Amino acid sequence: MFICNSRRMKELLFSIFIFSFFNIYSQEIQLDLIKIDESEFLLDGIVSDNEIYEAEPIYLQYEERPGYNSAPSLKTVGYFSYSETFLYVGVKADRVKVVSPVTSRDDMTVWTGDISGLAIDTYGDARSHIIIVSNSAGSKMDAVRTPGIGFGGEPQVNRNVNYNFESLGRITDEGYELEFIIPFSEIPFPNGKDQSWKIKIFSVYKDINNEEEVSATSKVDLNASCQLCLLDHVINLNDIKIEKKLNFLPYVSSNISGTRDKYYDRVNYEKPELNYGIGFDLELNKNLSVEGTINPDFSQVESDATKIDINSPTAINYEEKRPFFNKGIDALSYSLEVFYSRSINNPTFASKIFNQGRKSRLYVLSAFDEQTPYLVPTQFESYSGIGGKSFGNVLRYQNFFNSKSQIGLLASNRFYDGGAYGNLFGLDGLFNFSDNWKFQFEIFLNSNKEPIADWINSEKKFGEYSIKLDGEKFNGNAIFASIRRDTRNWRSFIQYTEMSDGFRSDLGFITTNNLKKYTLWHSYYDFPEKDYLKSYRISLRHDFEYSFFNDISRSSFQSYIQLLTILNTDILWNYEYNFIKSHFEFQFKDFINHWIRIESQPDNFINFSIFYKFGKDIAYRQVVPELGMTNNINFSSEISFNQNFRLRPSISYSEMRKLNSDDFLFKGYIGRFDLRYQFNTELDLRLISEYNDFSKQFYFQPLISWRPNPDTIFYLGGNQNYIDQFIDYNSPHYRVNKTQLFLKFQYLFN
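Above: the chain sequence. Below: its structure as tokens.
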């Protein structure tokens, strides 16, 4: 059980709570929009006089990057209008040249060209920003931006949300024009026919020297602890129409799979599978919605890029891409990963209630899972397996006192066949006080009873408990606290993390526990705004890590130097000196490693990223862990042959040699080619091939996708997996050992 035994900590928490209510607001610019008839609007990429004749022009007069509130080199102006059912935004941009790649929805390639976008705070309390982006070709992206948590403290961006908006543009003699149609039914906001929303228009473009510039309607303030509080334009909408929404989302999918165990065998195809299910989303009012899904298709059509885990002592997580979790998922963002949506693996039924009011929000999730992931963390490594049936629940409540103060509660549990369970309870808060200071905390308690199962086979122990699942009961606790100060030139924070050896979150992704960790960080930023040096930072970091019982396990010092220079090139170098680093009973002292990352877009048709790590590191997965000389190289690039055709090659190489010999502890690489042709913004062809040298496997995945909106989709594709070593024959050539053909059609009825 967690006990706060520090009187000073209690006094500090109380002071922060009181000071957080004193909020300093910037001067707001009120825009009283005039409602016009829907017949005046036509989405054709032309910002016509009829559509904006009652609109007041809003100029993007502040350069965010590379300048600091300086005047942009090129003019961009926005216009807001609205009808009874949607918000209209028009943008006119003067440009020397316009680059508009045709991409599928939410493809990051759209950021490599000229784009304009919106940030909308419909609640006005900085809990989140709705981000909507498009280019003149109509390529779209949306996201939700939330307050910064965790290590960096920077605002978080979740691209897995879907707002069903429309956009279209055209290239003109002066630059481009762009239109947005945003239905009121598609975005969250408080109940009521009269609305006041904070907004910002921003634009990303290349100047005459191909250097990236970002301009906006709001000033940048790097001294502000609350970056989401900086929107200074308010649009006032009167007498809008609020419709109750009921969506049905049925799907049907089919796949046929085959395997070949022996080289000289034919591929043995299984009976074709047919799956179908349905989901619904009922919006009772603008605050309250209910979602449910029966036999949901939680499969991953998108191919996850393989991560090298040959030397990782813990499990590796992957980004969530399944649409059921889109709405309200930002409410479950924690520094400690106590919720991980992929822990719900294969449910037969799932439901969700989301209530978001002016001062609070409530998120409730329940799911019956047929194949349950199970994760056991320890101090130095984690153990995972796939179990049987379970029933999981999540309840999340947040209260927003104002734009700079929020507090929340979390309760989650999972019940397994046989009476096993995992319960978690938590309290968290985020407070911005004064102009520069921010405090965040998370406190959790858990109570668990393991199932009796063979999902994990290990004879190892943690403390007095065993890793294997033998029905043991145990409790645990965890705490995370961070206090930081941000100014234009200086950024500093202190973080403390504590987890007992019995701490787990069955619906989360906790890979290590039994620790007490202190992190000190101090950075200096400057913005010379020179041709050869746009900005730079120098950072220092010190980590102290102990077991929960105060045995030191790690002490390290790190320094960072980051430069933004010519050709849109970002260079980051890291130096790490490990005074002490332990793994189990083994302790290693005084070893150094480095890594460097270079990201660049020298021209519109190409961008690339290089990561290189070298020096000494621990070989964790050896029978006896030891220090070795490591070299890790990751290279990725995107080459645009035209606005429709792109190639994304990447390679990741990793090796570790013994210190006193040329013998390798491990060595290998993963190479990947991603070839895409975008016929239009809705239809694309993708060909992915990947070779894994560690497993000696090659796979090929073709996929045709049609997405007329975020929820209506059609997929036709397959997977071909190749190996060269079979039971009966080691082939000089790779041959298929697994094959799959799949089809999916999902259609939105609203």
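The first helix runs from residue 7 to 19.
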